[in-house]
Design brief:
alpha/beta, seven-stranded mixed sheet
C-alpha cells in the first residue's frame, strides 16, 4: 500500500481561487441519446430530449451537488418530512431544469436527509419525503437523469456506524433511480473482503466515452473507505475499453478541506484518510494511474477545487447544497450555496463551472430570492 509523505499530504489541497459575480447562464450542452448497456436511456415524459443538441460533437454535461440536509435543531418532520433545506433544494432543481440544453445527469453526492438513526421506518420516511420534493419539481419531468449516492447520514446510525438495515432502506427507496445504472459493483466478500453486497452502492457505467465511478464511502464494516481493489480493476477495464474520461463521485472526499483552514482549526481531517489512510492512497493512485480527471465529493459543507496528492487528478468538493456551511478562514470565497457543472467537450477537454448564491442574511433556511446565482469558479480540469 502506497502512502504519501508528510510534505505531500500537507500540500495536498490548494484552496481554489473562487469569487466573482458573473450572472448565471445555462452552459451550452451537447449530448446524444446513447447510454452504455448498463444504463439504459429514458427521455422525459413526452419523449422530448431537450438535453440533446446532437450535432455529432460528442459533448455533454453533468451536475454534482451534495449535503442538503438540515441541522438537528432545524428538523421539523411535521412540516418538512424530508429534513432537506427545501429553499435551496427546490431552487437547485428549478435552475438545473431551466438549463438549455440540459445536463444529462444530476449526481447527488449524499447527505440529502438527516438520517443518523437506528430506526429504519424513520429513515425511510425521510427518504420518501425527499423523493416527494424531487418528484414535485420541474426536474422530475425532464430528461435529466437523477443518480443518488449515499452519504454517512443515510447509511450510518446514531453511533456513526454503517448498517446493513440502512443500506437496504436506501436501496429500497432510491432504487428506481439507481437501477438503470447500478448492479455491476462488488458483492460481499471478494478481493476487498466486503461485509455486505455493494453492487448497487459502489458501481460504474459508461456514457459517450466517459466512465463514471460511483462509490459508497461508508460500507458496512469499513466506514470511511471505498473498495480499492474493485476500483483498481474497474478502472483498468474502463481504460481497456477505450474510456476517454474518468470521474469518480462519492460522498466523502479522498482529501478533505484542510483541517488547518477551519475556524477553529480541526485536529484531523474527516475524509477517506481518517481511518485507513493507506487504502485512501491506494484508491487515489488508481485514479492517477488511469488518468482520472477528478473525484467529485461532498461531506465538507463548502466548495473547493484543488489538486489531490501525487499527481494531476483534481479533488472537487461540492458539499454546498444547502446544509449549514462550515466556519472556515476563507469564507468570503468558498461559502455559498449552489452546484457544480462539468462539461465534457467534443474536443476532449473537461470544463468545470461552479454556480453559487450567497447565504441568506436571515438564516440558511430562509428565502434566497434576493440572492442571484452567479459563476463562482471556472476551470479546465482536463487530464494534463
Amino acid at each position: 500500500m502506497r502512502t504519501a509523505s508528510p510534505l505531500v499530504l500537507a500540500c495536498a489541497l490548494l484552496v481554489a481561487a473562487c469569487g466573482g459575480t458573473e450572472p448565471v447562464a445555462a452552459p451550452r450542452i451537447v449530448s446524444s441519446n446513447q447510454l452504455a448497456p448498463s444504463a439504459e436511456r429514458s427521455g422525459d415524459n413526452n419523449g422530448a430530449t431537450t438535453s440533446e443538441d446532437d450535432n455529432g460533437s460528442g459533448a455533454f454535461s453533468f451536475v454534482v451537488v451534495g449535503c442538503n440536509r438540515v441541522d438537528t435543531p432545524d428538523t421539523n418532520k411535521a412540516v418538512n418530512p424530508s429534513t432537506a433545506n427545501l429553499e435551496q433544494l427546490r431552487r437547485t432543481f428549478a435552475e438545473v431544469a431551466a438549463m438549455r440544453p440540459r445536463p444529462k445527469f444530476l449526481f447527488l453526492a449524499g447527505d440529502i436527509v438527516f438520517g443518523y438513526t437506528n430506526s429504519q421506518p424513520e429513515l425511510k420516511a425521510e427518504l420518501l419525503g425527499w423523493r416527494a420534493v424531487y418528484e414535485a419539481s420541474p426536474l422530475a419531468g425532464s430528461d435529466v437523469r437523477l443518480v443518488p449516492i449515499p452519504g454517512n447520514h443515510e447509511v450510518q446510525n446514531k453511533s456513526k456506524v454503517a448498517t446493513l438495515a440502512a443500506e437496504q432502506t436506501w436501496l429500497e427507496v432510491m432504487g428506481p433511480y439507481i437501477a438503470p445504472f447500478g448492479g455491476n459493483g462488488p458483492h460481499a466478500g471478494g478481493a476487498d473482503g466486503l461485509a455486505t453486497d455493494q453492487s448497487s452502492l459502489s458501481y460504474s457505467f459508461d456514457y459517450k466515452g466517459t466512465h463514471f465511478l460511483l462509490l459508497d464511502s461508508d460500507p458496512v464494516g469499513r466506514d470511511w473507505s471505498v473498495p480499492t481493489k474493485w476500483v483498481a480493476s474497474d478502472l483498468r477495464d474502463a481504460r481497456r475499453r477505450g474510456a476517454r474520461h474518468i470521474f469518480a463521485i462519492a460522498h466523502k472526499p479522498a482529501y478533505g478541506y484542510p483541517a488547518s483552514q477551519y475556524r477553529p482549526a480541526n485536529a484531523v481531517g474527516d475524509d477517506l484518510g481518517k481511518v485507513l489512510p493507506a487504502l485512501r492512497d491506494d484508491f487515489w493512485h488508481s485514479l492517477i494511474d488511469n488518468h482520472a480527471e477528478a473525484m467529485l465529493a461532498a461531506h465538507d459543507h463548502l466548495y473547493s477545487r484543488a489538486r489531490g496528492a501525487f499527481g494531476q487528478t483534481w479533488q472537487i468538493i461540492a458539499g454546498n447544497g444547502g446544509s449549514r456551511l462550515e466556519s472556515v478562514v476563507d469564507e468570503a470565497s468558498i461559502n455559498f450555496y449552489g452546484y457544480t457543472v462539468v462539461r465534457v467537450e467534443g474536443d476532449g477537454r473537461a470544463m468545470l463551472t461552479s454556480y453559487g448564491r450567497d447565504v441568506p442574511a436571515a438564516g440558511y433556511l430562509t428565502s434566497s430570492s434576493a440572492y442571484p446565482t452567479t459563476v463562482r469558479d471556472r476551470a479546465d480540469i482536463s487530464w494534463r
